[in-house]
Amino acid sequence: MEVSHPEPRDTDLVDLLNARDGIGTLVDVQDGDTFTVFNIAWGYDLGDEFAHITTNASPFVAGQPIDFFFTDKVTQIRDASTGRVLYSRP
User: Nearest 5°: phi and psi at 82?
Assistant: First the structure.
């Protein structure tokens, strides 16, 4: 039996985080948490349209926690140095 794989709906968000590899980035999520991100590892579970993101582990970033979130929960992405908004959920 063949399983259908939906097209990702978050490629712009994943591409943005990948493009900022090594640059401090603040990611705000729906529950009010803010994660400081320097790099990501991501993937899609079977049938998912949104990626799961693991932060600061590829490679590990000294002094930074490893966090985990799903892209459909992201509300805003900001530059950590300037606070400039780079992405805001429509």
Answer: -105, -20
Q: Tell me: domain 11-88, CATH 2.30.30.100, correct? A: yes
Going residue by residue through the chain, which has 90 residues, state the pLDDT in tens, using 9 for 90 and above. 666 789 999 999 999 999 999 999 999 999 999 999 999 999 999 999 999 999 999 999 999 999 999 999 999 999 999 999 999 998
Check: CB of residue 17 under 8 Å from CB of residue 80: no
Q: Is 12 helix (H, G, I), strand (E, B) or coil?
A: helix
CA distances from 33 to 8, 30, 36, 89 (A): 24, 7, 10, 15
What is the model's pTM?
0.94
Task: Considering only CA atoms, give the Rg of the chain.
Answer: 13
